[in-house]
Design a protein that fits this description.
This protein is an all-alpha fold and 47 residues long. The chain has one domain. α1 runs antiparallel to α2.
């Protein structure tokens, strides 16, 4: 896989967005926002 946790979270976020878009499944906006925020912060600090 990847050693970069930020990129891993970004991948998970993109997969969730793709699933919710394709199948119209409602995953809480709060959950998606938190995953996106954490991924962005970790990518910026390089972890």
């Amino acid at each position: 896989m990847t050693k970069n946790i930020g990129m891993l979270l970004l991948a998970i976020y993109l997969i969730l967005v793709g699933i919710t878009t394709l199948f119209h499944i409602g995953i809480g906006g709060i959950v998606m926002g938190v995953v996106a925020l954490i991924a962005g912060i970790l990518i910026l600090i390089g972890k």
